Amino acid sequence: MISQYQESLLLPARMFQSVSMNTTYEDVLEHIESGIMLFDEEGVLVFVNKQMYAFLELARHSLLGCTMTHLLANIQLSRLKRKQVLRAYREMVRKNKPTYEFIDEYGRYWRATLRSGEQMKGSYLFILKEISDYKLIEQTAYQNDSLAMLGKLSASIAHEIRNPLTAIRGFIQLLHPHLHQLGKEEYAKIILAEIDRANDIIHEFLTSSKPSVPQVSMIPVSALLKEVVLLTESEALMKGCQINLHPLQGDMIISGDAKQMKQVVLNMIRNAMEAITERSDDYIGKIEVGARREGAEVRIFISDNGKGMDLCTLDRLFNPFFTTKENGTGLGLSVSDRIIKNHGGCISVSSRVNEGTRFVISLPLIQ
């Protein structure tokens, strides 16, 4: 039996051990990768780790002892962060959803999780974790599935549709003189244009599912851009756009398929034209094209002052079938992305609504 005197001697040791264990737990929570925020049963914030402070972009220990209302009213909290916190609070606390996913202003994916109820004894534990890597894997898997489905679909429809279209086009051309005599020549032009558009769509399906093997050659970047600008200048003028080709410094040569590279740059310039024509206000449309050397790579840029894109559109921009155009197939940028990756490069894009968009194609240079 432990006497009352011995019990009194053990009590400070137990208290010290309890304090030491709490400190250890806090140290562990402080250094985990997820952001932690704990509110007690009265709604008072009792613990925040450094990862959560970093996400909120607030000074250390500036929130302890406050409530959710005080947190949202903090003058140091940016407007965007306040919106994100408020939406997460509404989704998880008001609507009783255990998780909430969102994208921040830097394009990063986050998952917020709420732990509450009896297991937390009235407290609310918010856990925040960045899931950008998981989303990238998920999108890649989805894209691969889409491309596999696209391959099967395009292979089955190509021969079934192209042969009748070729026959129809031939008969329309034979009937063209008769339609001209009847004063219905415009009908023939419309039919031929629509047949050609259908053929173009089929061609895009085939290209995206089974891109041709690159015919590798040395391509001077200056010659590539000059040729593409020359091809698109008249079309741009008809749409009220100006194309400015920036002078290139030095000889920059890449290795690849000239036709495929031309296809990529043409696609981006035409996208820029459409973005300019879709902008409602009265202004002069400008497309800037150029290239610069960055170490062992060349950066080819195509920028415009068109309608721009929001974050949600940017996030899905290179997905097959995704398009914001009324008559688009959603394959142009997807195919362009695959071509550039096959050439050992990458495409990056930045955009602001009503300010414009900038595409940058990075490719290895031949030294």
Automatic annotation (TrEMBL):
Mind telling me which InterPro entries this protein's record contains?
HATPase_C_sf, HATPase_dom, His_kinase_dom, HisK_dim/P_dom, HisK_dim/P_sf, PAS, PAS-like_dom_sf, Sig_transdc_His_kin-like_C
* This protein's UniProt keywords: ATP-binding, Kinase, Nucleotide-binding, Phosphoprotein, Transferase, Two-component regulatory system
* Broad enzyme group: transferase
Q: Show the catalytic activity.
A: ATP + protein L-histidine = ADP + protein N-phospho-L-histidine
Question: EC?
Answer: 2.7.13.3
Record SUPFAM superfamilies: ATPase domain of HSP90 chaperone/DNA topoisomerase II/histidine kinase, Homodimeric domain of signal transducing histidine kinase, PYP-like sensor domain (PAS domain)
Q: Which GO terms describe its molecular function?
A: transferase activity
Residues forming the PAS domain are 21-65
Which segments constitute the Histidine kinase domain? 156-367
Supply the name of the protein: histidine kinase
Which gene is this protein's source? sasA_14
